[in-house]
Structures are given as structure tokens and as C-alpha cells.
């Protein structure tokens, strides 16, 4: 018995629909599996970073470029840093002029020898929400205070993470971390403000150390130095 042309048309349309929706289901399944893989990779990457940075202090050399987009001004600086859990850090700027930013986790000192000035204040006011790389002194901040996602890049050497603060912050709208796949060192931090100002910090010669003395993260104010409160700025 021959099928009528209209019935053949219905069958043809049905086959197309089954193929189309089957393809959609397959794509959705693949997308779901891909997301699960990315989530797994991200969790493993964060776990490796946490393991690396929560057990010991570290020192490094750094270069910094800060760009004010509206004024098209870029400032460059270099120096050395030391970080230690919890919340201890020391930035020693060598160029363009000497300057020290020191925190013992609660107190902050900014020493400017050229101006014979020391700015003092509370560390949490200056490094709030992990600013200034402060999350490297307490790596749990990454998961606690940021939405973290893995950015797909074409690199055999690095991972790239995007961090968006859970709480709105005009000074830090989002940031990117470049992570070494081999060592899980954070080798680059790029921070963007809500005004699209950019702060790039690159770390080299990273050395993890168990013997960094806590005294390094305290500062004795030199006699005759002008004192300025951070609250006055």
C-alpha cells in the first residue's frame, strides 16, 4: 500500500523535529558536562592555590603599573614584597622613589622618606576586601569575598581567574589573576575600578619561606618624622 504524499510529508517533518531536538539535547548535555568540568577544574585550582599560600610566607620582586584612564596617566614602580599569614605584608618601593607600606595585620604604616612622613591607620581600612593583593596574606578571602570564575585562555603555562567582589566596591570592580600551572604561584594581578582605572602588579623571583620573622611587619617610626592619620586623607 502506497502512502499518500501528505502522510509522507508529516513523517518527514517528524524526523526533522526528532533530529533537531535530539541535537539540542546533546548540545545541552555537552554544555552541562563542560560546565561541570570547568567547575571541577576551578575548585582544584583554588584548592592548590590555597594549599600553596596558607602554609607559609613568601617574598618576591614586583613591577607595578597604575593607569588612570580618564587622565591617560600611567605610573610605574618597582620593588620587593614580603607577605605572611595572617594579614602581614611589607611593600618596599625602590622606584620611582623609596616608600614602604607595612602592615602587621592590624596596624598600617606608610613611610615616605623623601617627605619625612609616616601615614598611620588601620590595615583593614586600607586593604579592605583584599585590595592591594592583601588576599595573598589570607587566601581564604578568595572564596569568601569574591565570585570566582575560570577564564578560558590559550596558554600551556597559565590559568586565568576572574574575581568579582561580592560586595560592591568602586575601587575594585573586578580583577584577574594569572596563575602558574606548574607552581600555582600568583604571578600577575590586574585590578579594575568602576571607572576602568587599571592597576597591574607582576611578581617575579617568588620564594616561599617558613622563616620570615614577624618583626619584619612592624615599623619603628623615626624621630622627627611627621605623622599623618589615614583618616585625615
Describe what you observe in this structure:
By secondary structure, the protein is of the alpha+beta class. The chain has one domain: Lipoprotein localisation LolA/LolB/LppX (outer membrane lipoprotein receptor (LolB), chain A). Helices cover 25% and strands 40% of the residues. It contains 3 helices and 12 strands; from the N terminus they run H-E-E-E-E-E-E-H-H-E-E-E-E-E-E. Strands 7-8-9-10-11-1-2-3-4-5-6-12 form a 12-stranded mixed beta sheet. A hairpin with a 3-residue loop joins strand 2 (73-84) and strand 3. The longest helix has 50 residues, at 5-54.
Count of discrete domains:
1
Rg calculated over all Cα atoms: 26 Å
SSE order, one letter for each helix or strand: HEEEEEEHHEEEEEE
Termini separation: 93 Å
CATH topology group: outer membrane lipoprotein receptor (LolB), chain A
Overall geometric form = globular
- Per CATH, the architecture is Clam
Enumerate the spans where pLDDT stays under 50 for 5 or more consecutive residues: 30-38
Mean pLDDT value: 85
**Spatial ordering of strands, largest sheet:** 7-8-9-10-11-1-2-3-4-5-6-12
Look at the helices and sheets and give the structural class.
alpha+beta
Q: Can you count the helices? A: 3
Question: What is the strand content?
Answer: 35-45%
Query: How many β strands by DSSP?
Result: 12
For this structure, the quaternary state is single chain
Biggest pleated-sheet summary: 12 strands, mixed
CATH class, named Mainly Beta
Amino acid at each position: 500500500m502506497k502512502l499518500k504524499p501528505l502522510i509522507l510529508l508529516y513523517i518527514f517533518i517528524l524526523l526533522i523535529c526528532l533530529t533537531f531536538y535530539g541535537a539540542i539535547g546533546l548540545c545541552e548535555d555537552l554544555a552541562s558536562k563542560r560546565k561541570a568540568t570547568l567547575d571541577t577544574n576551578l575548585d582544584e585550582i583554588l584548592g592548590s592555590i590555597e594549599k600553596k599560600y596558607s602554609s607559609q610566607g613568601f617574598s618576591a620582586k614586583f613591577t607595578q603599573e597604575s593607569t588612570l584612564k580618564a587622565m591617560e596617566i600611567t605610573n610605574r614602580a618597582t620593588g620587593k614584597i614580603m607577605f605572611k599569614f595572617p594579614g602581614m605584608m611589607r611593600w618596599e618601593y625602590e622606584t620611582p622613589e623609596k616608600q614602604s607600606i607595612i602592615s602587621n595585620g592590624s596596624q598600617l604604616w606608610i613611610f615616605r622618606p623623601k617627605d619625612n612622613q609616616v601615614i598611620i591607620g588601620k590595615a583593614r581600612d586600607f586593604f579592605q576586601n583584599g585590595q592591594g593583593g592583601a588576599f595573598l596574606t589570607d587566601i581564604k578571602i578568595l572564596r569568601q569575598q569574591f565570585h570566582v570564575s575560570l577564564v578560558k585562555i590559550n596558554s600551556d603555562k597559565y590559568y586565568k581567574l576572574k574575581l568579582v567582589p561580592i560586595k560592591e566596591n568602586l575601587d575594585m570592580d573586578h580583577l584577574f589573576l594569572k596563575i602558574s600551572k606548574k607552581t600555582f604561584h600568583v604571578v600577575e594581578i590586574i585590578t579594575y575600578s568602576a571607572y576602568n582605572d587599571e592597576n597591574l602588579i607582576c611578581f617575579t623571583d617568588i620564594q616561599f619561606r617558613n622563616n620570615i620573622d614577624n618583626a619584619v611587619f612592624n615599623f619603628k617610626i623615626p624621630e622627627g618624622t611627621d605623622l599623618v592619620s589615614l583618616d585625615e586623607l
